[in-house]
Design brief:
about 150 residues; mainly alpha; two-stranded antiparallel ribbon; two-stranded antiparallel sheet; elongated
């Protein structure tokens, strides 16, 4: 059991899992923002255009509810809620648009970084390597040794 717990701990502490958890948390918060934007900004505007106070109230009644003599509902009404569907579609489009913009910006930044790295490599290759000062040749060394020996 301890080994299983240790393996689970190692799994959870990996960077990928932590990154994924952070992504889920941010995505949830972002989802709330887009839902609010759709429900509180776009849908009232569309409701105003279509003459409805609330877009979720734009429904097509397929079958009305049926009540008995006591006023209790025997059969529920069947409605097609296209106003809610429109709101959900707008919500999806906004999320998809933002994800697209983020990925596009990330790819552009990656292209710029790769171009800079390639340019730097090309500049390094073009720069001539500093030549080390040429030392004496073998013949010169032998001549110097011979002169030293002759002096002694």
């Amino acid at each position: 059991m301890k080994k299983l717990a240790q393996e689970f701990k190692e799994f959870i502490m990996r960077g990928n899992v932590l990154d994924m958890a952070i992504g889920v948390i941010i995505a949830t918060a972002f989802g709330k923002i887009t839902t609010s934007l759709v429900n509180d900004v776009f849908m009232p505007f569309l409701g105003w255009l279509f003459g409805a106070r609330d877009m979720t109230a734009l429904n097509v009644l397929v079958r009305p509810e049926v009540k008995d003599e006591a006023g209790e509902v025997v059969q529920e009404a069947i409605t097609i809620g296209f106003g809610t569907f429109i709101g959900t579609v707008i919500d999806f489009i906004l999320v998809a648009l933002v994800v697209f913009a983020i990925i596009k910006a990330f790819n552009k930044a990656q292209e710029i970084a790769e171009a800079k790295l390639l340019k730097k490599k090309q500049e390094e290759e073009e720069e001539p390597a500093e030549e080390e000062p040429a030392g004496p040749t073998t013949e010169e060394l032998l001549t110097q040794i011979l002169e030293e020996l002759q002096k002694k």
